[in-house]
Predict the 3D structure of the following.
Amino acid sequence: MNPLLILPILIPLVTAILALLFREARNVQRALSLLGALGLFGASAGLMFDVRRNGIQAAQVGNWPAPYGITLVADLFGAIMVLLAGIIAMAVVTYSLVSVDAKREEFGYHSLIHFLLMGVCGSFLTGDLFNLYVWFEVMLMGSFVLMALGGERGQMEGAIKYVTLNLLSSAMFLSALGLLYAMAGTLNMADLADKFSDISASQPYGVVTTLAMLFMVAFGIKAAVFPLFFWLPASYHTPPAAISALFAGLLTKVGVYALIRVFTLIFVQDAGFTHNLILIIAGLTMVSGVLGAVAQKEFRRVLSFHIVSQIGYMIMGLGLFTPLALAGSVFYIAHHIIVKTNLFLISGAVEKLGRTPVLKKLGGLYQAQPMLAILFLVPAMSLAGLPPLSGFFAKLSLARAGLETGQYIIVSIMLGVSLLTLFSMLKLWNEAFWKPLPASAIGSGGAAGMGNLHTWLISVAFLAAITVLIGIGAGSFFSIALLAGEQLMNPQDYIQAVLGGAR
Amino acid sequence: MTSLILRTTARYLMPLLLIFSVFLFLRGHNQPGGGFAAGLVAAAPFALYSIAFGAVKARHVLQVRPRYLIVTGLLASVVSGAIGMSVGKPFLTGIWGYLYLPGSGKLEIGTPILFDLGVYLVVIGVSLSIIFALEEAE
């Protein structure tokens, strides 16, 4: 068995256990957490190189053969996602060390973060739909507690909506699994893909499409697509910035990952219906998210609505369903995870400096903290899609894929939404950074209890550097994304890696 | 103040339930039972004790903090998986050995029982930390 497949799950698990053991010893706990995040990053980078060099890796935990055992698989898409989780883990943990209060740490903040990371990595690596459900639950348990940890009034309100909607989605996921198992007799993804590839058009595959719709709703709630996204802007601005950055970067993307995985591997028989539906949903998600953002007046609420709008881009590639389009989706996810986490980390510093999340009361930050302002511009402009940053190339490849398949409507929607995104990023820039501090707020501002701002900016600068790097080296990054897209379009290799012969 | 009957029962049921939990734990190897059910049965007398005498006394009787039970249990499960890995098999592969007992022949012993022991400890730890916290919150 390739140990690199299990390490991204084991490292967070052991870190979480040890952090739980040393809950009272704050410094030990913090050191462990940082060490665990570094270890996860190292293991995920190792896995990425391995998959890039040696092709799809698969392993059977417990040594039971494939359709019966616990399968772990890493194709390029999965490995890229795990690597992104490692990068985000490092950035968020470093940021947490300076920004999260001692009380939250004492209540097990660091072990919860690592339990959540274990769930996220498990979801990206599993090759079995039921295990995917279990990893979702592991991840959600961690996120439920993190959402409510601290017990502030706003947090509780956000947590109730978040928990309720996610439980609904889990229930739907579970019933879909039950029906699927009754029909196919297996939940191993490769085995399912193999079985379903025999279903030809002559046979009634209405049941399969029905099941596909159940999965689409279940994953759609988690991914926050139209019209199931309303829980996200209602809850993501409530917990501390480090936690919402982690959620914004990784959690909804697990839903997107599951959608892409399931609709490229298993439910491809009725692509004319399902994938066109996904394309329509993608367009509506983009538009409704960005319009919601334009109407918002708080820093993190604007960003939360932008997550929704960006989810639309990610599943647009899935809807177009060509190798180039899927590569665009993969590239977009990578770009988005880094940029969005970074923007949430910055929002934490901004809210702390200005002592308010309300845009009207913020101001003058460019004058006071030019470094922070410039670091804000990098991800903000990347999100809007300005060259030469990562977002430009992500959007370019999606637009090209759209034009190649003749889907002009979705391409024009996506370009329009880009303009509105730029507008909304400029609104943040003007309100928080450029305009002078409003007279009513003078005297109440200042960075009390914040320590040195530069320690807050380490992770921000790290992620901004990656954004620039992806933009500069777009060619080589995109060739990896293209390989990932081709792997997704040709599931034979995936099936062969899982089912073909014992390892 | 709780009744004399409850206090007496809580005290006398403790050893009985603990023995029963060990029985359930071992029975779970091939039959219904196992770490999860046994853990719940083992947590029950301490829960009863805390209702009868209060959480402080129940914590005293338990002697270890529930959190340490959780940590030990989780670590035991990880170790049981890692043993398989250390001999070159995939994670969580069951590795079996034999224990020769004087007089009663050989006993097959393997990593699954360590895993199950981990589950047992985690279940006791989790359920008791919840129950004690609720008891103290009153």
Observations:
- The beta strands of chain A are 57-61, 70-74.
- Chain A has a mean pLDDT of 88.
- Chain A touches chain B through 16 residues (CB under 8 Å).
- The radius of gyration of chain A is 22 Å.
